[in-house]
Design goal:
10% strand; 6-stranded mixed β-sheet; 15 helices; alpha+beta; two-stranded antiparallel ribbon
């Protein structure tokens, strides 16, 4: 084991060596955006400037991938006074339907109380459309909010250019589209260009999320789940409907994980780098994303709550790998805060190819622990182990397998199981006996 540690640490060191430069670039791009948003706020005080962007910077520094940064613009609205009402397909007027933006699952209207007079230009205005279906109650219309925010962003760009607050090449606004549910800007940050997807958000207090069974705060710092979910965030889902966003709550949980002992965030950094270099296919859409991997880390934090699991980098990476392999084999990655939601659904993923690559890494990580500078590891001829793949299918047949004892079995298959706790080893042995009995019955 000692001989293998330098390879893991050396690869991680290469990743960390670039983090400072990435953070500096993000801060430069953030300064440009704050300048624009300050002008937006001057023109329309209902759009607030949130100067606390620590979570976005934290996520950007963690990842190797170059995906868009989601930037929420809070609305100066009493969110607690609004009433959320389910939005169903066919509710919205025909003219509100935009190709690619039907009402999302879990979407809702936000009804505005009659005594609220400062939002009339952002609410539904015709009795034949949403007002009639909402029982005559005015609803906050995300399409109108987005349109106004887009207008003001364009105005702010022109203003800043005329005042020489922007340098040539600082900003590219060609992707601004009035029918999009987010407003996309390309901003120069150092020697790279960063894409920011700007979305208006309505915030309101809510009862902290209660996870079922034994899940409450298991493996996480005490109270972190309550703190992360005590505020609801509503962002546009369609021109007339809003949806609840878990973007910032998930980042808050991720930051809480970083306060725990062990190289947990480092394992996420490492796998994201491997994913960018070796698991994603150049020129093709889709593939695993950082959002997928950070969800895997949250699950691993809960399913492996003992500090003994997170003593070294190699072992920590395998905590994530066994969960990721199970999700790829079953083609289902449950959302940590809403397990009924499958984050793989609708994603353009080649599950067979991805599974082989991830299992290939799990079986021989040293082939991947190097920077290739554009030339990924060749896995031609690599065959998945049928025994491991059959074992990975068990949670799809019986949800009871989605537990620590089951994933301990998977760790033992890759010969990285080093837990000494007698109770836990006994639970693993009993579950393995159960799986073997079920396999005999089925055969």
């Amino acid at each position: 084991m000692a001989a293998r540690v330098p390879r893991w640490r050396s690869y991680l060191g290469g990743i960390l060596s670039r983090e400072g430069q990435r953070v500096e670039g993000f801060q430069q791009a953030e300064d440009v955006l704050l300048t624009l948003l300050e002008h937006v706020h001057e023109q329309e005080p209902r759009f607030l400037v949130d100067y606390c962007r620590n979570l976005e910077a934290f996520e950007f520094a963690l990842r190797a991938s170059e995906g868009a940064v989601i930037l929420e613009v809070p609305l100066r609205i009493d969110g607690d006074a609004l009433r959320a009402r389910a939005c169903w397909p066919g509710d919205s007027p025909a003219e509100s339907v935009v190709p690619g933006h039907p009402p999302a699952s879990g979407a809702c209207y936000l009804e505005v109380p009659s005594e609220e007079t400062g939002l009339k230009d952002w609410t539904s205005a015709d009795a034949s459309g949403v007002l009639e279906q909402a029982g005559g109650t005015a609803c906050l219309v995300p399409g109108k909010v987005l349109w106004r925010l887009k207008e003001l962003l364009v105005s702010a760009i022109v203003h800043c250019q005329r005042r020489f607050l922007l340098q040539p090449g600082d900003l590219n606004a060609e992707n601004l589209k009035e029918d999009a549910m987010e407003l996309s800007l390309l901003v120069r940050g150092g020697w790279k260009t960063i894409r920011f997807n700007i979305v208006p958000v309505v915030r309101r207090q809510q009862e902290p999320l209660e996870l079922s069974g034994q899940r409450s705060d298991r493996g996480f710092p005490e109270g972190s789940l309550r703190k992360a979910t005590q505020e609801a965030h509503f962002v546009p889902a369609s021109p007339y409907c809003w949806r609840s966003s878990t973007h910032l709550p998930v980042l808050k949980l991720l930051r809480a994980v970083g306060t725990l002992k062990g190289p947990r965030l480092d394992s996420l950094r490492l796998l994201d780098q491997v994913n960018c270099e070796d698991w994603r296919e150049d020129g093709k859409k889709g593939g695993l994303t950082f959002n997928h991997l950070k969800m895997v880390l949250l699950w691993s934090t809960e399913l492996f709550p003992s500090p003994e699991d997170w003593q070294d980098l190699e072992g920590s990476v395998y905590m994530l790998l066994v969960i990721l392999l199970c999700c790829l084999a079953t083609q289902r990655l449950p959302h940590f805060l809403h397990p009924e939601e499958n984050l793989f659904q609708g994603e353009p993923l080649d599950f067979n190819s991805l599974y082989c690559k991830v299992e290939g890494f799990a079986r021989d990580p040293h082939r991947f622990l190097r920077f290739h500078f554009g030339f990924p590891v060749h896995i031609d001829g690599l065959q998945a182990d049928p025994g491991i793949r059959a074992l990975l299918q068990l949670p799809a047949k019986d949800k009871a397998y989605w537990d620590t004892a089951y994933f301990d079995i998977l760790l033992s298959q890759f010969q990285v199981y080093r837990i000494q706790d007698h109770t836990r080893r006994l639970a693993m042995s009993q579950l393995l006996s159960k799986a073997r009995r079920e396999a005999l019955v089925q055969s």
